[in-house]
Amino acid sequence: MDEVSRSLREHYAGPGLVERLRAALATIGPEDQPLKPRQIGAIDQFHTRGHAATAELAELAGIGPDDRVLDLGCGIGGPARMLAHSRGCRVTGVDLSEGFIEAARYLSLRTGQHEHVEFHCASALALGFADQSFDVVLLQHVAMNIADRPRLYREIRRVLARGGRFATYDVVRGGAEPCYPAPWAHDPVDSFLLDPAATREAIEAAGLRVVAWRDDTLAAREWAAQLKAAAAARSGPSTPGLDLVMGPDFRVMAGNHARNLLEGRVGVLMAVFEAS
Length: 276
Description:
Rossmann fold, 38% helix, 276 residues, globular, alpha/beta, seven-stranded mixed β-sheet
């Protein structure tokens, strides 16, 4: 767990998360009743546009049943479980947060997907896998927390097989300083956004060649506007969402993320690279 600030560790610590999940999911059914992935869709995809973005990124990367997939910065495992189910592949998830990994394993058991996914706690900058271990590496809303982008992308290139694909979906710098707290950082100290051009340059310098490049900012803004309108119209108690995972401050973070998108302070990039 190198080169990670204490505040960032605390931001993603997830203490007591399994207990909170167990209590929330008890309203759906007893502990021994299998859950369907869609029943936890509101809490297990911690990135802009949720399931839709993961599905589009998987399609863009051409993920198939024979691919060995690494979900880097997997959170509580939503994308990994989704890919294993929809694409028929085996997925390995890695995250810095022990609390998230524990929750990912718990939810995979609850949804009966534990034989198709596995999760490990590790740093994205020092993965404990052999060279060329994976055919696809997925990175969604992770890079903005990492200052040493060259090292990140070199490590991704190292674990990719020749001809393997690196699929990224990340927040990029826009025209002004973002408002904080944001979902990825409480303040600018732990935020390391790059603009799209600098992002591409850093990835290509690691030996990865672009094969698909898409500015997803407009779709992200539409999503943010819809969420904002839904929140304004909501009355009564809300259903469990990502605040269950990230704590009560998440609603403020999510509001700032929507504002950052709508005001052009940040953008969203979707891209696929090939290991040359």
